[in-house]
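Q: I have 160 residues here and want to know how they pack in 3D. Can you give me a structure?
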Amino acid sequence: MAYDYLQQNVIPVKLCKEIGRIGERVVRLSQKDEERAMRLHRESIVMDFHLHDTVMPEDLKDFETLARSGRPAVGYEGIKKSGLTAFLCGFGGSMGRRSSPTPWQLNDIIWDLGIRQADLDHHPDVGIRGYSTTDIQKAKESGRTTIIPHVENAQIIECG
């Protein structure tokens, strides 16, 4: 199968739980304020301008194995629960190091971007690729999240 690398159980380490790993903190509001807050959330486009969607290994000693695997684990369960309309997801850092122990390698960023975009296409109930404001509006209307890729650091340009 052409997309075997996107199947379940190909991630080489045991991952931590996405939901329930850290206790939730609920701010108690009056019924009136709760209704207002929920209305604002429903009516607004809610964005995070720098979010990492990778699920970490249960044992951080396994981080290097995960980072070098070329198969980052994306937290789709957490994304769905977040209620975000959109977020910018940075590529090129410590997670995408398939070919080198050193981050910010252009080929690794290209791989990371490709694998995550293909993976996202397999989770259409959670998110959509984000390239324009139209995508953000589409996500809002459909109750999904737009994931907007960006490169975090210009070091990959490899000048010099």
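Q: Anything worth noting?
A: The beta strands are 47-51, 86-91, 127-129, 145-151. Residues 45-157 form one domain.
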